[in-house]
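Hi Y.,

Following your request, here is the sequence exactly as I used it, all 104 residues.
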Amino acid sequence: MRRHDDIQGRTVISADGQVVGTVASLMIDDAQWRIESIIIELRKEIADRIGADHGIFHRAVLELPVSSIQSVGDAVVLELDVDELRGLRERPAADEPLGAPSKS
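Below is the corresponding structure, written out as tokens. Let me know if you'd prefer a different format.
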């Protein structure tokens, strides 16, 4: 078992081998005490490529369900390539769009 702060800051790599960004935080379902998704701070070039909003003073973020994670080790490896991240970013979730900053 890992602590959540052991995962934060780890490099996130897409299925096509590109460094996407780093793990910023984990979203936990309070009722079931289960990790539902991860928030990734995207690298600028990846944010530009998938069309995620970012600015000088804030990085683009993307929320991904844990089902999109292939493995967690020294890095977090996704089952998705960068082009598939664009599709996820464009598809709204139930209560807020993916890629929106967390409310915490």
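The helical segments are 4-7, 44-50, 82-90.

Thanks again,
Q.
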